[in-house]
Design brief:
Blueprint lengths: L1 E4 L5 H12 L5 E3 L8 E8 L6 H5 L3 E9 L1 E3 L8 E3 L13 E5 L8 E2 L2 E2 H6 L9 E14 L2 E8 L5 H6 L4 E11 L2 E2 L11 H6 L4 E3 L2 H8 L4 E2 L10 E5 L2 E9 L3 E7 L4
Parallel strand pairs: 3-12, 14-16
Antiparallel strand pairs: 1-3, 2-3, 4-11, 4-12, 5-6, 7-10, 8-9, 10-11, 12-13, 15-18, 16-17, 17-18
Length: 265
């Protein structure tokens, strides 16, 4: 499901509501956390779709954010302690894009020693998180009004928009809205619509059609020879007339090895 998460709700709140909808015994998850103050697109996965979580999480993201200039926040967002500095970032210089080194905020969901970083930070423990490499393909100033500036940002998974804004200087994210995850757009969000798994996978991965004995083997996790002229990719979806069978990796010798199955074992 494509959900437009409102401000004030956690991603867990949205998953819990979906779990009540689908009933006990149905596994439910999501494909990328949104902070409580943030709004926008959240992909909710139910049943066998949760097996493909990492493929949806790996999709690039798009955001629109409103930054408050001349202020700082201990969390990088409105939920922290804010302080007025009056020092305005220079927005006339080129905004950083490309491959960047970024340190996740101390108030983030990254795990440190089995605990979330934000839990440690709120308990008064100093948290030093390792830098990571991210990619920002778009960082554009859309407009400015006083101490507010609106930006459009497109980036790889794992990028922290709060850090991008904080790195500009004295600024923090006042508002944050996720507008896209890969090919999925916020305009398509509808809490009443359940997108079939086959359609969702076909939007992000190449699909290789199989049938007969090849489909049976794939359903049991057995490697099969790639059909002639089959689409290629780091991973592909194997599917027949009944829908997706498995996600498979190309291996030596021109074979496809199922790594995630969707049929009952």
């Amino acid at each position: 499901m494509l959900i437009d998460k409102p401000a004030g709700k956690t991603s867990h709140d949205i998953v819990a509501a979906a779990r009540r909808r689908f009933g006990r015994g149905v596994r439910v998850g999501h494909a990328g956390t949104l902070d409580p103050f943030a709004t926008g697109l959240l992909i909710v996965l139910a049943g066998r779709a949760t097996r493909a979580q990492r493929f949806f999480m790996g999709q690039p993201k798009a955001y629109e954010t409103v930054a408050r200039l001349g202020w700082t926040s201990t969390t990088g967002d409105p939920e922290g302690e804010v302080e007025h500095t009056g020092r305005l970032p220079d927005l006339d210089r080129p905004l950083p894009t490309g491959r960047l080194r970024q340190r996740p905020p101390a108030y983030s969901a990254v795990k440190v020693g089995g605990r979330r970083a934000y839990e440690l930070a709120r308990a008064g423990t100093e948290v030093e998180l390792a830098e990571r490499e991210v990619e920002v393909t778009r960082f554009e100033l859309l407009g400015r009004d006083g101490d507010r500036a609106t930006f459009a940002i497109e980036c790889s998974t794992g990028t922290y928009v709060r850090s991008l804004i904080g790195d500009l200087g004295d600024a923090y994210c006042l508002q944050l809205r996720r507008t896209a995850i890969g090919p999925f757009r916020i305009e398509d969000a509808d809490p009443e619509r359940v997108v079939p798994l086959g359609d969702a996978l076909a939007a992000i991965l190449p699909v290789v059609a199989v049938d007969g004995e090849a489909a049976r083997r794939a359903a049991h996790g057995v490697a099969l020879t790639a059909p002639s002229g089959a689409p290629q990719g780091p991973v592909v979806v194997l599917a027949d007339g009944d829908g997706p069978i498995a996600v498979a990796e190309p291996r030596e010798g021109g074979v496809l090895k199922p790594i995630v199955g969707f049929r009952p074992g």
